[in-house]
Amino acid sequence: MVGIEGDETRRLAESILDASGADGTEVIVTRKDTALTRFANSEIHQNVRESGVVVRVRVISGSRAGVAATNQLDEASLRDVLARAEETARFQPERDDPPLLAPPAETATVALDEATADATPEDRAARVGAICRQADAAGVRAFGALSTGVTEYAVANSRGLFVHAPRAIAELRVVTMSDGGSGYADRGSARLADVDAEEAGREAVEKALSTRDAEAIEPGVLPVVLQEYAVGDLLQYLSYIGFNGLAVEEGRSFMRPGERITGRQVSIWDDGLDPAGLPLPFDFEGVPRRRVDLITEGVATGLVHDLASAARASVASTGHGLPAPNPFGAWATNLFMAGGDAPSRESLTEGIKRGVWVTRLHYVNIVDPRRSSLTGMTRDGTFLIENGRVTRPIKDLRFTQSVMEAFSGVIAMTRATTLEPGDDYDYTSAARVPAVALEGFNFTSATR
Question: Which residues in 196-223 are b (16+ Cβ under 10 Å) and which e?
């Protein structure tokens, strides 16, 4: 199936490239075949499947570029999308830095899990059913969704480049609710077999039961244990606001290359080929992905680049480009954070006299990207830590915190790491992270 569609995609792209009279032309083809089983009140209520293709054409005329897209593959529609891209380019202003196209390149091969790509409604229902049975037995209600499927990406251009790869992803999210209590769990992987729905359901149910009768506490700067869900949220925002070359170039990033910006325990990198993440061997400009060490033992050591920011910085693209042109810059979408020595998540509370256990974060917003400052609130499992152990549930807390400052006070991190899928639906980012105990986190107020 994949090989045939790859050949068809090549022919489709070549038909557009052959018809183009522009100085340069780029074609991005994205084929998606994904399915979703959604459940609410501990019952499956929806099975949906989406299959489609999007063709995005970028043409370059001198220092101008134009973009157009279509989801129709007939000959007339392909002629039209090329004509619209050429028309758009004619009305663009001249650019000081001309648009670039990637040269031909060899890319790595990433294994595709056919069981995930071809998962059936029955495959998903069996896993969702295990969650709902646990919720019913405990007297709580389960909500969420399990998605499976495959997306195929291809990039071709008039310099002779053609790269193509499929990526299968399974993603489960569970929220449980019970008499004022709530719990959460998620699982993500390139292999459906690795998504342990029963374990996720058990975790979410236990949280819902243990968060009943939560009481408010006085906010302030308190030690904190962040579960992997919360750590993954923070890393996704760090990538969004500052890990790329354009953000540093424009002076809106917390990254100060060569300087220490966190504690020595913190090392963060991006690796689009590591099978422990959600690998994809090239970016949306067709450039092979490279591992980039972003923060090494607390020191800012690297940035991700696309073709444009790399050219201005006189370095090579790291293979992290989004579809050009875009105002955001490159994006680190396969993040990893090194673990520590703690044998378990529960052991992170040791030595904390009074602190807060945070399951996940909610409604996070950017306050100051130059300080890596975020604001938001805790959700679905916030607990008080007293004398080295979790004692009781507390009402959710709002926070405003510089992530770099928080990461400068690492107490401990778990040895094991967990893959946390991101919330972006177009590019499917993920972060493999440990749970982390921090010396201080600035809680500003309690929620009702």
Answer: bbeebbbbbbbbbbbbeebeebeeeebb
The C-alpha atoms of residue 185 and residue 201 are separated, in whole angstroms, by 7
- What are the pLDDT digits (tens) for 423-437? 766 678 999 999 999
pLDDT for residue 216 is more than 90: yes
Q: How many helices (H) and strands (E) does the chain have?
A: 9, 20
> CA-CA distance, 212 to 214, in Å (whole number)?
6
Q: Cα 445 vs. chain centroid, distance in angstroms?
A: 28
Q: pLDDT, tens digit, for every residue of 226-267?
A: 999 999 999 999 999 999 999 999 999 999 999 999 999 999
Alpha-carbon gap, residue 255 to 88, rounded angstroms: 35
Q: Mean pLDDT, the chain, as a whole number?
A: 95
* Cα gap 206→178, rounded to integer Å: 10
pLDDT, tens digit (0-9, with 9 covering 90-100), for 258-293: 999 999 999 999 999 999 999 999 999 999 999 999
Show contacts of 83-86: CB within 8 Å, 24+ apart. 85/57, 85/58, 85/59, 86/20, 86/21, 86/22, 86/59, 86/61
How much is the CA Rg of the chain, to the nearest whole Å? 23
Is the model's pLDDT at 296 over the cut of 70?
yes
Q: Is 68 helix (H, G, I), strand (E, B) or coil?
A: strand
**Rounded-to-10 torsion of CA 333, 334, 337, 342:** 130
Sign of the CA dihedral running 436, 439, 444, 448: positive
How many whole angstroms separate alpha carbon 388 and alpha carbon 346? 10
Kindly tell me the sign of the dihedral angle through the C-alpha atoms of 114, 117, 119, 124: positive
